[in-house]
Each structure stands twice: as structure tokens, then as C-alpha cells.
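anyone seen this seq b4? input:
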Amino acid sequence: MKTALFILALSLVPFAAGAEPHPVEIHTRLASPIGADKKVALTLDACSGKYDDDLIEFLIQNRIPATIFATKKWLDKNPHGLSVIKAHLDLFDVENHGEKHIPAIIGTDRNVYGIPGEPDVVHLRREVVEGARAVEKATGIAPHWYRDATGEYDPQAIQEIDKLGYKIAGFSVNADQGATAKKAAIEKRLEKVMPGDVIIAHMNKPASDSAEGLAVGLSYLLKAGFVFVRLDQVDLQLIPEKAPKKSP
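predicted toks r here
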């Protein structure tokens, strides 16, 4: 998968000689066969900010496994939330979201959604490695998956993350749009989930509608017979991108 991600990035983002490549948002699904088992993966980003107690308690009460992508910033600022997660490592897999929540794009003055990227490869490596160390220190378990800030990557960054030995976690369903979506919108997005989907949402903004919307949407999926898995139990495959239509 890792080599394929690099090839995908290069093939999807043509650019002129000497120009900086555009970042790509990586979309993935579960790699295991998706027959009648209706498996899906819930992933929750803990970027910076706070701990969404309502969301995590809902998952615990309903025994819904999730993969949490936590930054060092979030782990350092939320000891209570971390203690709850550590008490339920049978449900939660904690993976690497970086040290400071920086997009995996390389180049001075480059940014994604207004968030500055890395000035060089050295800084990118630090973001990934220090994020991983923070997760292992906090949980006692070394992470194997990496997700950057914004979910967008440029080809050079993908190559470096591959060299560091981490698999990139994409997604196929954006449930809460960075914790900005309203409850009704989150519910509708989850109603459209299909077997094999990888859901992304957020657990670092308790003032948002994420917890309430996810509670309704995830309950619907449970009643529909979906089974939730963590990323440490599966692998992911790329979703083939549709070629852009040619103008007549």
C-alpha cells in the first residue's frame, strides 16, 4: 500500500517542470473482502483543542471500536481524556497525528486551508517521528499508522513517510467536515456509509455538533448490522480516482 500511495500521488498531480506539486487528499477503504460482514472503520482525529467526553462515553457505552489519531499537542493538554482512552484500549487504537498538527506538504510559504506546511524534509520527519514517540510514551504501544493535518499530502512527503515506516491512513467518508458540520448533516453522511468505508470525524471539539450527530448516525449503522473495526486489525486500499472529464 505504501508504494502505491506514492505512485498515486505522482500520477494524480501533474505539474510543470520546476513547479511545486499540488497536495492530494488520500482516499482509502478497508482492504479486506467486504461481503456480508459489513465492516467499517471509525477514525477520530484529536488535533489540538479539548476532549469530547460525550463522544467517547457514547462509544464506550455502545462498545464501538475506534482508531484515534492524536497529536502530541492533544496528548499533552488532555490528561483526563488520555486516561479514559488508556482504560479502554480494548476499544481504542491510538495512532500518530503528528507532533504539532502540520500538513505533510513541503516548501516555504505553502499551506493547506491556511495551515502552514513544513519548510523542509527535516521538519517533516520530526513531525512524524515526535508524534509517534508521544503516542508510544502515552499508551505504551508504538503506532503504525500516520495521518497528517488536513489529510492532504504532496508526493515528496508521502515518500518520506513511507521511508519512516508508517502507513498513511486515508478515509472514504468525511462525517463532520473538521467538526464544522451540523448534526443533521452528520447524520445524513453516516446514513450513506457502505461496507468497507473508513469514516473520519473529530473528538477534540466538544462544543461542536460532532458528538450528537455521530451518536445518531453510528446508532443507525449498528442497527443496520455494521461491524466496526480498528485500523490495527486491518489494512487499507486506495480508492481509484475518477479521471476528469475532457472538455468537448
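The first helix runs from residue 2 to 12. Residues 1-7, 9-18, 243-248 have pLDDT under 50 and may be disordered. kinda curious what u guys think
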